[in-house]
Design brief:
38% of the residues lie in helices and 18% in strands. The protein is α/β, with parallel strands linked by helices. One of its GO terms (molecular function) is hydrolase activity.
Length: 280
C-alpha cells in the first residue's frame, strides 16, 4: 500500500475489495510507522470525522479512515451485529496488508474496536476508545429518553442531531457544537454519500444486540488502552466508559469537563496531544 502525506481535506477517496464488497477509505499523514485505523460512530461516514483530530494525529501518525460495509462510499448492506462489523474491519485491514495496527473507535466504532482487538490479538497493538462502553453493561446499547428526545427535536427541525447529542447545553457546549459542525463541512469535494435510513436501522439493531450481549472478558486484551469521554454523555452514559477502563488490563481514563459524547472533538487539542503521546 502506498502511503501519502495528504491531509484529511485533500486526501482522495480510495477503494479496496475485501470480504466480497468494496470499501471506501482515505489515507494520509506520516507515511511510516504503525498505522492508526479510525472506526466511526452511528450513521457516520468518513466525512464526519473532525479534521482537527485527524490532521492533529496525522502530523505524527499514518492515519486511515474507512466506511464499513453499506455506509458512505462502501458497498453492500450494513451488518446487524457488531461482530460482523468487526469481521469487515479485519478484512479491510488485511486487504491493505496492514499488521500490526492501532485502533481508535468512537461510539459504535468503540464496540467494533473491542471485538477486533479481542479476537485478533496479533493484529492490534493498542486501542483508543471514546464515547463507548462494554457489551452487556447497563445503559450501553439502549435508547434513553434524552437520546430519543434530542433526535426527535432535531428531526422535526430538519437539523443534524449531532450538536444536541454530542455536546452539552451550556454556553461552552453550544459554541463547541457550532465549531465542530463548521469543521466537518470543510471538505467540499470528493465527499461520500450520507448514511441511509435503512443503513441506520441496521446499525441500531447491531447496537441493541451489543447491549444485550454477554460481557466480554476485556482483560484478555493485554495491550495498552486509552479510554476517553465527556463527563456528561447524553448518548451513552459516561459510567460505561469508566466501567470499560476498569475492565481493561492497562487502561488510562480521561474525562473532559463540561463535555458530552463528543468530548474528544470539543477538547480536540487535548485529545490529540493525549492520543499522540499514548500511541507512539
Amino acid at each position: 500500500m502506498t502511503s501519502t502525506t495528504e491531509t484529511s481535506i485533500t486526501a482522495p477517496t480510495r477503494y479496496v475489495a475485501a470480504a466480497g464488497t468494496r470499501f471506501a477509505y482515505r489515507v494520509f499523514g506520516a507515511p511510516t510507522g504503525i498505522p492508526l485505523v479510525f472506526l466511526h460512530h452511528f450513521t457516520a461516514t468518513i466525512d464526519d470525522w473532525d479534521p482537527r483530530v485527524l490532521d492533529g494525529i496525522a502530523a505524527h501518525r499514518h492515519v486511515i479512515v474507512f466506511d464499513n460495509r453499506g455506509v458512505g462510499g462502501s458497498r453492500g448492506r450494513v451488518p446487524t451485529t457488531v461482530g460482523a462489523m468487526a469481521d469487515d474491519a479485519v478484512a479491510f485491514i488485511r486487504a491493505l496488508g496492514l499488521t500490526p495496527v492501532d485502533l481508535f473507535g468512537f461510539s459504535l466504532g468503540g464496540f467494533v474496536a473491542q471485538v477486533v482487538a479481542l479476537e485478533n490479538p496479533g493484529l492490534v497493538r493498542r486501542i483508543a476508545l471514546a464515547g463507548t462502553g462494554p457489551s452487556g453493561f447497563k445503559g450501553v446499547g439502549t435508547l434513553n429518553r434524552r437520546l430519543v428526545t434530542d433526535t426527535a427535536l432535531s428531526a422535526m427541525r430538519l437539523r443534524d442531531p449531532k450538536p444536541r447529542l454530542f455536546f452539552t447545553r451550556t454556553r461552552a457546549g453550544r459554541d463547541a457544537a457550532l465549531d465542530y459542525m463548521a469543521r466537518i463541512g470543510e471538505r467540499q469535494t470528493d465527499r461520500v454519500p450520507r448514511t441511509t435510513l435503512r443503513a441506520a436501522a441496521a446499525q441500531l439493531l447491531a447496537i441493541s444486540r451489543w447491549g444485550r450481549r454477554s460481557p466480554m472478558d476485556l482483560s484478555m486484551f493485554t495491550g495498552p488502552a486509552l479510554v476517553a469521554n465527556g463527563e456528561d454523555d447524553r448518548m451513552l452514559a459516561t459510567r460505561g466508559s469508566i466501567e470499560l477502563a476498569y475492565r481493561l488490563n492497562d487502561a488510562r481514563l480521561v474525562l473532559y469537563p463540561d463535555a458530552g459524547h463528543g468530548g474528544v472533538f470539543q477538547h480536540h487539542e487535548r485529545f490529540v496531544a493525549e492520543l499522540s503521546a499514548f500511541s507512539r
